[in-house]
Amino acid sequence: MRYTGNIGKALDNEDGIALVTALMLGLFGMLLVAALLLMVRTGTWMSGSQKRYQTALAAAYGGNDFFVKEVIQRGIGGADLNANNYGGLLLPVATNDYFDQKLRTTGNYANDPVDAIITFAAPQGAPQGAAITVQATIVGTSKGNSSGSAAPPLSTGGVVNNGSGTMTPQHVPFLYQVRAEAQNAAHTIERARLSSLYVY
Question: What are the E-state strand segments in 2-131?
Fold first, then answer.
């Protein structure tokens, strides 16, 4: 005997399919909104990170220029280097005697402590801890174009009378390899490091 009672009705019953479809569409919508929020948050973080890095890089350039044009030149001139000379911007870490040794003695000082810490205050309205600190140091000193107090002339007598046309090159006693590293006090991830060669 063949039974065909409610089997067809059970297969044709679509009660609840709208609920399942609505739930699936709601789930897809929530996933889409979550993805958009994640993209916005990541973009904001990347933008802030890039801005902080550019600020640190600009501070590294400024600190490097300040170090080579003020600190090294004043040190070579025999000036006493302390925070009072620069209105609190500069805090020498190394003693003056050791810094003087770096200025006048060839050597590799890459593993030595920094020579100066230069702090640029945060602008008005900036969040707390937004000051930029630049650590500057001489990492290597080498001799310049001659090791004596005067360079030999490029040409000597025989062609020119009385040495009037003799040219003497400018003596460069030392070359300084300088490293400047800047970072935000509150965000230590974004840091910028510069290396430069200063000829005195």
Answer: 90-92, 107-108, 116-120
> Cα torsion at 95, 98, 102, 106 (round to 10°)?
-170
Chain segment 45-64, per-residue pLDDT in tens:
777 778 888 888 888 999 89
Neighbours of 53 (CB within 10 A): 18
- Rounded-to-integer distance, Cα 185 and Cα 132, Å: 6
The pTM of the full predicted model, rounded to 2 decimals, is: 0.62
Q: Which long-range contacts (CB under 8 A, 24 or more apart) does 13-18 make?
A: none
| Residues comprising the chain, all counted | 200
Angstrom distance (rounded) from CA 85 to CA 104: 22
Query: Can you say whether the dihedral through the CA atoms of 49, 130, 198, 109 is positive or negative?
Result: negative
Taking residues 163-172, report their average pLDDT.
Answer: 58
Place of tokens 């020498």: 92
Q: What is the pLDDT of residues 8-43, one digit of tens each?
A: 555 566 667 788 888 888 999 899 989 888 888 877
Closest by Cα among 99, 95, 71, 96 to 85: 71
Whether 89 contacts 62, CB under 8 Å: no
Burial class of residue 100 (count of CB atoms within 10 Å of its CB; 0-12, 13-18, 19+):
middle
